[in-house]
Amino acid sequence: MLLDLWRDVDIPPLWLGLCLALVWKLGQVMPMAFPFEPIIGAALILIGLVLMGAALIQMLLHRTTFIPRRDPHALVTGGVFSLSRNPIYLGDALVLAGAALWWNAPYALALVPVFMWFLTWRYIRGEEATIAAHFGEEYAAYRSRVRRWI
């Protein structure tokens, strides 16, 4: 029962939320403002949210899941998925980077590659194996054309 509950809450938005809380706290404890940081931060957050929204819409239109560890019903390769195999996770990383700048915590940008590594380790590698099992050569061809992140 506890394992099932953990599986239900162990999703990327949880980890993004925890990282955002850490970045916010760092910005409160050790603020370091630079010119244009809030503007650049807001732009990164907006780009990340648009990327996530576009990917979500594409997945819904293809009637496939966007929830990690669920079996996909379609391989989405167009639109934002032609830029990145993981546009939602890329959007998460952009939101995190943008928040670090928005909240005057540029040193927290060091958390972004750690977050990306964690997502790759925790979710992406398993998702890629599942997608490969479902879509075989079609996924292999897509994978050879489009990078994991950007």
UniProtKB/TrEMBL annotation:
Would you say which domain of life the source belongs to? Bacteria
Q: Which organism is it from?
A: Thioclava atlantica
Q: Quick check: keyword Transmembrane in the entry?
A: yes
**Residue ranges crossing the lipid bilayer per the database entry:** 12-27, 39-61, 93-119
Q: Which GO terms describe its cellular component?
A: endomembrane system
The UniProt keyword set, sorted, is:
Membrane, Transmembrane, Transmembrane helix
- Does Transit peptide show up as a keyword for this record? no
Its localization reads: Endomembrane system
Q: Where this protein primarily resides, as one coarse class?
A: membrane
The way it spans or sits in the membrane comes to:
Multi-pass membrane protein
This protein is called S-isoprenylcysteine methyltransferase-like protein
One GO molecular-function entry: transferase activity
Q: Which Gene3D superfamilies match?
A: 1.20.120.1630
